[in-house]
Predict the structure.
Amino acid sequence: MSRVALVLPGGGARGAYEVGALSVLLPELERRGEEVTLLCGTSVGAINAALFGSLAHLPVAAQVELAIERWRGLDRSDVIAPLLSPRLPFNLARLAGDALSVPGFRRGSLLDPRPLRRYLDRHLDWEALHRNVDSGLLDAVCVVATQLTTGRPVGFVEAPAGEPLPEGSELPYVPVRLADQHVRASAAIPLIFPAVEIDDPPGAAGHYTDGATRLNSPIKPAVELGADRVIVIGFEPLAAPPVAPVDPPPHLVDVVANMLDGLLVDQVADDMERLVAINSFFVESHRVGTVPAARAYREARGRRPYRQISYALVTPKRRRELGQLAMRTFARRYGGLGVLRHPDLLLLGRLLRGRTDAGGDLLSFLFFDREYVDALIAAGRRDARRWLRRHPGVWCADGAHDFDLAPADSTREQDAASLDEYRALRRG
């Protein structure tokens, strides 16, 4: 039977969108006699991967119901402390001291990470996750974090005892019994949350930060861990945005939002386009055959030939849709004088008011609000149903279907594809 993997990227509060999409896709897989046995996540995707890993022994309907219940019960105070609090001057001093290398001031951050740690302690059943892996119900659960000393992404993988992990990859895999420290490290957004010190296993000990800064879309770990089919959730459509006819002078918010797009959204697009390109140009089963140069290159590096990887991809239809949804919900919930009861939200609203709609993108990362969570779950469900209407069999592997990528029918096209593959491998 094919191995199915979930690939869950980072996006803060947008993790509710992932759960909404899965609430449609997982029951459809069950109806088809398929099940997810690999879970790979980064940042909030790591939290969702651990959550579904801990629920894998339950019927799919119960998994979905409990995951939605966890997200709907999530309060802003469960993740972040109020921005305006007696600790704010101390936090700002720590951040400045860290930047200036002042002795005694290290690993500062804008937000207090303790609420998130307490929430994970209460709501993630680590023993259930371990049982589901040990029993063979799950093939692996992988969370990705970035090691600060090297700047490299690291995959922390819990797999059944004796199961070998991939070797020879640019992404190192570390066998581990997953715990809250690994998930918190994957979700430690730079400047927002402090880096997390990991002490298990000792060979990978050190300080780690958000895995999304280096590998937001963990498709590569899913494939290298043996997936034949991947479910990928994205937060933006993969089509490039049009050039804006008007270019107003940007605020800092606009600049930061576009940096986040580069770190998070563009990685998902690049990884998906590479996956479908490999399906079209390099896999053994394709009528054109494997490009000889690419095959020889992989063999020289001790890697297996490419396999065809089918995918299901759920994203919003319009660019910045989830950010605009955050802004509308914020205005409805905290517009007018009502926001005076929440001074920290008043400050947040002022800080995120840019000259474009990019402020909504930043807000969507931090807006852990019940009404917004409900709206994200509904959006995820809607977009998953849209995928199923286009792909009634769930899976797709044809690059021409969703990416306008035709298979290589000439030596010239094969040579161009081979050159692109060589460059991608060199970058890795």
Q: What stands out?
A: Residues 252-281 form the longest helix (30 residues). The radius of gyration is 22 Å. Residues 285-289, 408-413 have pLDDT under 50 and may be disordered. The chain has 17 helices and nine strands.
